[in-house]
């Protein structure tokens, strides 16, 4: 394998040496000899190589079609050779293991004798189910004295056809014989494959030198810290930071360089970098220079061109990259500080120098990278070795690295090292990192380095600026913030890299271990990183700094360092939880294995006491205990076999396409326990899974269920149906495998002890999913119902103080018409005139000539917590019980009545008000549809006073039937002020009615509102969305009558649009962002959005309101807005729907996938999302229109 290390010579070094013809003939003859290419050559981290001579073994790829040469012991019934090229790594066959009835263990092995003594490596490929199994590739030998020795490496499957190569290294053969193969211990239904086993004898070339292992730091903030007087101490003695670092084992320093960092007071520019580089070299350490090609921070979320390059053509931009790189490096050479490694771009997941160098334009990106790389090659001094790195974030995401570096390889980009950022609380597990590192080495033949990592040692804040890493982040990683754990976590990163195959893990850089309070992300700001430094806030070196004493090979045993808590379980009161048989254990070289656990016993009293308790477990051979949290619900689960742990559909009925559903036994696919209901079918299908429950105590219930799946169902509903046929349901949305979401239906009333619950599914072919842990619990029980009293001949009128009424109970059918009292237009409502419908609402229907409704105190008491549903001709009002209670609480008087005024507004009065508002012009048309009303809700006390309710805690719903609605998408219910001001209340159209929630009463009218924009014709693709938002007063357009649909929407504009769409309270937060004036037109909306948690800014203190919003920034804000509207949210594992998913920043991944699954966003063509592209005003309108109409 070619080493791409630069070894001097500048441009002249690329001149090919003269090769004599006799030597060429010799090479041809040599290459023709058999066996010459039975060896593998692998680059070593220290610049050496090892030749690996392959040993012949029997049937290594199982291409004989059987187990010739192999021996299976144990569960032989679970072993076979699969004849399917789709399941093989290469060829047509692979070894397959699987059994469905129960767990199983087996060993697949082969013994070879007559070997030369020496060092060997065993290599094999594996793929299989991502679940809880203990799989190992092993090699067993005997030493010279005959004592057995077993070496192994753990196999961690990640899914079907996700082939990964595993290696057992440094196998010492002394007696000429070796037994090798696989050990499998798996639960029922677990499956996997092995293929392409290879045994090689290692012939050492230049030995690996552990002293060359990189133990580096990024200390780019040091000069700014020193300039404000920050000091560093070792053992209480003040010393130069570089001296302290070197004393503790640091041998490499990374420095970032920005083009024109005005926001950082010039620090990290070329001059500062050159000065700092001289100090690094003088201290005897190696140097890595990190080119951001930006004036400020460059990362997956922002790759902004330097201001001086903004107007460059692409040709000029390429030349600028070359010139700037060469300029900085030449100045470093001039002071004898030329770097030993150069990083071309920083965390370039989305590309660099956007938009020109976006990964959506990979041809451009490759050209820019080549220019930077060429500048390094052309300026490298003679007899100097400089390696070139390409760097991505999200070091645990193998898919993203493969997608990016496959493109790099396809475009012929020449580089040496793959750099990864890996922060354990952001970038996946150590196993994710380990698997990715090994795969990158095998796939691309490149060396790898973790170029950024860090961990917190305290939760205390060193300044008044919040920190990035707090308890929630360390909870994800599994290690509380202490000095000891900081050292342990980083040591594990070191050891994981040191154990990369073939010594191709070069080392690790810790990001900013000396960044103490006083210097922030930008000039004038606080520090959000100081609790991840390796010095306390007074500058004293912490013990964790000793992690840099690490040496590869110094940790000889793979030891457990963390037992991950098992997934929590929720059970009903009295139910016995099914605890998992294994837990995940993290080892000090990055592996995560499933280990059997024996749980402590659970006391019966614990299962009878609502709340949460912890059960601990013992793992054989470990001091660390396993633990699991169990939550006991207060009420019994009335669903039988709700977790499907009976292994079948006992108590359930599956109707429709019954072949689509089954109970699957697989703990990895279950929400809890080991079973879940699974559905899939190869053709379009529809089914219902139901359970009829009888003998329920009458009362109010809540139905809950957990769901996960791939998504794509046309119907996916959880429902409850009572004996009268009333159905309550909630839509469910699946967002990925093991993305479990719980769905609820509350306030289900049971009156006769009967309820049918279930799930309804309709889907196209190949759509799949799971249900688990379905519960029905009683939330409030009805009191024992008294026998109906006999109607008296002359019942007393409770409204006139005549004592208790003994009228018959209200019915459950249609309410009877209540007429107005003579010559008053008023109707007084008593309890016997209220009908309770199936949904629990109190129905009252009054004659159309009624314009004032009086609710007696007894009527309000009868309604209790039920809403009032009032109908008056074509008008209906739904008034929540909270609103009536709000009126009652506003007065301490007794003997009250509640008055609701419904006054018809004459058309001429409304038209006069609209004219005063001067809203109509050549671009705006307003048409009144139907009757307008003036509403008033007040309390009448016994003392004769009236108190009006001005605003409502919960919205009152207005519904108006329309006889004519030609353009319903441009029609809504509006509040109309006396001055003609309009306020859009809502416009949901269903069953011939238009409805809207309102938070105050006044004049309301149904208006058809049409606003036309000169540049948004009817044929424009976003016309409906733009017009719909204009109706809703979310957008207004430009003063010149245009909308500018193709212009980028600014961050301020998008925040205002979302704030208006959600009808957020304006203002409420002061001094939110340092770059936002309270006089700005958008300030009230932006302040309200900040208060609601909708926006946070780019670095905690600035918002950059005039900057264009990117599509991935949009997705994050959009999903927050969806949640604020009460939508059901979920966090997927990855955004796989788009061809450029690898370019989506880690912080935006879940939001993009969620918004796409909900149908709120779509790509920009060719299957791409274009995350770093700017959002246009038309796109923003389309997205928000979907949000408000969903």
Please give the alpha-carbon distance between the first and last residues.
56 Å
What is the count of DSSP helices, taking H or I runs of 4+ residues? 20
Helix amount? 10-25%
Fraction in beta strands: 25-35%
Radius of gyration over C-alpha positions, nearest whole angstrom: 36 Å
* Strand order within the widest beta sheet: 14-17-18-19-20-21-22-23
Which regions are unreliable across 5 or more consecutive residues at pLDDT < 50? 1-49, 784-813, 1129-1135
Overall shape: it is globular
CATH class of the largest domain: Alpha Beta
Number of strands: 56
Helix-strand category: alpha+beta
CATH superfamily of the largest domain: Glycosidases
- Named CATH architecture of the largest domain: Alpha-Beta Barrel
Largest sheet: 8 strands, parallel, barrel
Mean pLDDT across all amino acids: 85
- What is the total domain count? 6
CATH topology of the largest domain: TIM Barrel
Structural features, described:
The protein is an alpha+beta fold. It folds into six domains: 53-204, Galactose-binding domain-like (Jelly Rolls), CATH 2.60.120; 216-556, TIM Barrel (Alpha-Beta Barrel); 563-632; 653-781, Sandwich (Jelly Rolls); 807-1011, Sandwich (Chondroitinase Ac, Chain A, domain 3), CATH 2.60.220; 1023-1189, no CATH class. The chain has 20 helices and 56 strands. The strands form ten sheets. Strands 14-17-18-19-20-21-22-23 form an eight-stranded parallel barrel, surrounded by four helices. The longest helix has 21 residues, at 314-334. It starts with 5 loop residues before the first strand and ends with a helix. The relative contact order is 0.06. Mean pLDDT is 85; it is low at 1-49, 784-813 and 1129-1135. It comes from Paenibacillus woosongensis. It holds the Pfam family SLH.
């Amino acid at each position: 394998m070619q080493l791409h290390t630069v070894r001097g010579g500048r441009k002249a070094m690329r001149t090919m040496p003269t090769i004599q013809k006799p030597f060429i003939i010799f090479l041809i003859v040599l290459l023709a000899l058999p066996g010459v290419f039975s060896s593998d050559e692998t680059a070593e981290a220290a610049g050496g190589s090892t030749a690996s001579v392959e040993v012949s073994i029997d049937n290594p790829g199982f291409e004989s079609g059987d187990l010739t040469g192999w021996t299976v012991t144990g569960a032989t019934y679970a072993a076979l050779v699969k004849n399917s090229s789709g399941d093989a790594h290469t060829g047509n066959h692979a070894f397959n293991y699987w059994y469905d009835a129960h767990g199983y263990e087996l060993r697949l092995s082969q013994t070879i004798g007559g070997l030369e003594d020496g060092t060997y490596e065993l290599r094999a490929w594996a793929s299989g189910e991502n679940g809880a199994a203990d799989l190992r590739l092993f090699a067993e030998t005997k030493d010279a004295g005959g004592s057995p020795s077993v070496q192994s490496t753990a196999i961690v499957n990640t899914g079907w056809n996700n082939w990964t190569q595993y290696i057992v290294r440094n196998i010492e053969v002394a007696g000429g014989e070796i037994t090798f193969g696989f050990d499998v211990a798996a639960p029922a239904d677990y499956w996997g494959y092995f293929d392409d086993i290879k045994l090689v004898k290692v012939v050492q070339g230049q030995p690996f030198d552990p002293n060359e292992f990189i133990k580096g730091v990024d200390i780019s903030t040091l000069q700014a810290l020193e300039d404000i007087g920050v000091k560093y101490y070792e053992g209480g003695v003040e010393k130069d930071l570089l001296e302290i670092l070197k004393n503790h084992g640091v041998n490499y320093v990374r420095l970032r360089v920005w083009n024109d960092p005005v926001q950082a007071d010039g620090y990290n520019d070329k001059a500062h970098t050159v000065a700092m580089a001289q100090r690094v070299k003088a201290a005897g350490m190696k140097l890595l220079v990190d080119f951001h090609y930006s004036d400020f921070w460059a990362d997956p979320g922002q790759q902004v061109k330097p201001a001086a390059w903004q107007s460059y053509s692409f040709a000029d931009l390429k030349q600028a990259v070359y010139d700037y790189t060469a300029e900085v490096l030449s100045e470093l050479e001039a002071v004898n500080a030329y770097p030993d490694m150069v990083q071309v771009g920083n965390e370039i997941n989305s590309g660099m120098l956007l938009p020109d160098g976006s990964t959506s334009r990979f041809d451009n990106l490759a050209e820019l990278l080549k220019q930077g790389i060429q500048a390094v090659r052309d300026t490298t001094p003679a007899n100097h070795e400089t390696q070139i790195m390409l760097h991505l974030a999200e070091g645990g995401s193998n898919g993203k690295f493969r997608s990016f570096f496959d493109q790099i390889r396809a475009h012929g980009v020449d580089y040496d090292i793959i750099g990864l950022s890996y922060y354990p609380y952001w970038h996946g597990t150590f196993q994710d990192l380990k698997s990715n590192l090994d795969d990158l080495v095998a796939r691309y033949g490149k060396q790898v380095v973790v170029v950024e990592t860090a961990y917190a040692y305290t939760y205390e804040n060193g300044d008044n600026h919040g920190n990035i890493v707090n308890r929630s982040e360390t909870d994800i990683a599994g290690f509380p913030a202490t000095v000891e754990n900081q050292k342990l976590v980083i040591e594990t990163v070191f050891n994981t890299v040191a154990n990369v195959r073939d010594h191709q893990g070069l080392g690790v850089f810790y990001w900013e271990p000396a960044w103490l309070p006083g210097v922030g992300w930008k000039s004038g700001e606080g520090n959000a990183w100081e609790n991840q430094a390796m010095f306390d806030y007074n500058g004293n070196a912490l013990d964790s700094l000793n992690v840099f004493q690490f040496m590869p090979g110094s940790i000889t045993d793979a030891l457990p360092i963390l037992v991950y808590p098992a997934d929590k379980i929720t059970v009903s009161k009295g139910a016995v939880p099914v605890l998992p048989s294994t837990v995940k254990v993290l080892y000090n070289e990055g592996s995560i294995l499933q280990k059997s656990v024996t749980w402590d016993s659970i006391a019966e009293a614990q299962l009878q006491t609502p709340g949460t308790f912890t059960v601990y477990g013992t793992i054989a051979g470990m001091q660390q205990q396993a633990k699991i949290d169990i939550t006991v619900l207060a009420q019994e689960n009335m669903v039988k076999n709700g977790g499907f742990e009976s292994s079948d559909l006992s108590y359930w009925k599956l109707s429709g396409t019954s072949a689509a559903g089954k109970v699957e036994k697989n703990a990895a696919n279950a929400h809890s326990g080991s079973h879940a209901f699974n559905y899939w079918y190869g053709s379009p299908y529809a089914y219902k899974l139901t359970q009829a429950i009888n003998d329920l105590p009458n009362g109010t219930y809540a139905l809950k269920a957990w769901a996960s799946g791939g998504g794509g169902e046309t119907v996916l509903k959880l429902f409850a149906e009572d004996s009268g046929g009333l159905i309550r349901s909630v839509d469910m949305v699946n967002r990925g495998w093991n993305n479990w979401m719980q769905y609820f239906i509350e306030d289900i009333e049971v009156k006769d002890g009967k309820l049918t619950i279930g799930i309804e599914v309709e889907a196209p072919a190949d759509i799949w999913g799971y249900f688990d842990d379905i519960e029905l619990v009683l939330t409030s029980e009805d009191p024992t119902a008294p026998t109906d009293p006999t109607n008296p001949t002359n019942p007393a009128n409770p409204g006139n103080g005549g004592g208790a009424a003994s009228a018959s109970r209200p019915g459950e059918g249609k309410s009877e018409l209540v007429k107005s009292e003579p010559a008053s237009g008023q109707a007084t409502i008593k309890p016997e005139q209220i009908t309770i419908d199936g949904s629990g609402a109190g129905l009252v229907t009054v004659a159309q000539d009624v314009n004032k409704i009086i609710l007696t105190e007894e009527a309000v008491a009868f309604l209790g917590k039920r809403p009032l549903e009032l109908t008056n001709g074509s008008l209906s009002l739904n008034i929540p019980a909270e609103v009536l209670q709000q009126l009652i609480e506003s007065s301490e008087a007794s003997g009250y009545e509640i008055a609701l005024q419904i006054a018809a507004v004459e058309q001429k009065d409304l038209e006069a008000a609209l004219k005063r508002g001067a809203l109509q012009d050549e671009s705006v048309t307003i048409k009144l549809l139907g009757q307008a009303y003036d509403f008033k809700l007040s309390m009448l006390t016994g003392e004769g006073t009236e108190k009006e309710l001005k605003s409502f805690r919960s919205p009152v719903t207005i519904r108006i039937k329309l006889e004519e609605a030609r353009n319903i998408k441009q029609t809504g219910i509006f509040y109309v002020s006396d001055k003609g001001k309009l306020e859009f209340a809502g416009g949901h159209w269903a069953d011939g009615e238009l409805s809207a929630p309102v938070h105050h009463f006044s004049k309301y009218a149904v208006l058809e509102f049409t606003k036309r924009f000169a540049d948004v014709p009817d044929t424009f693709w976003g016309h409906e969305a733009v017009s719909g938002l204009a109706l809703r007063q979310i957008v207004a357009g430009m003063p010149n009558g245009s909308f500018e649909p193709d212009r980028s929407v600014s961050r301020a504009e998008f925040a205002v649009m979302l704030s208006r769409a959600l009808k957020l309270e304006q203002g409420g937060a002061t001094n939110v962002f340092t770059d936002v004036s309270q006089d700005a037109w958008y300030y009230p909306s932006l302040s309200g959005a900040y208060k609601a948690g909708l926006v946070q800014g780019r670095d905690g203190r600035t918002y950059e309101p005039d900057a264009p919003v990117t599509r991935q920034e949009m997705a994050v804000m959009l999903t927050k807005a969806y949640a604020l509207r009460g939508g059901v949210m979920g966090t997927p594992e990855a955004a796989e729907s788009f061809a450029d998913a690898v370019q989506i920043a880690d912080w935006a991944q879940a939001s993009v996938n969620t918004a796409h699954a909900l149908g709120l966003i779509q790509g920009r063509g060719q299957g791409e999302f274009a995350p770093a592209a700017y959002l246009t005003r038309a796109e923003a309108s389309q997205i928000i229109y979907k949000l408000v109409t969903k």
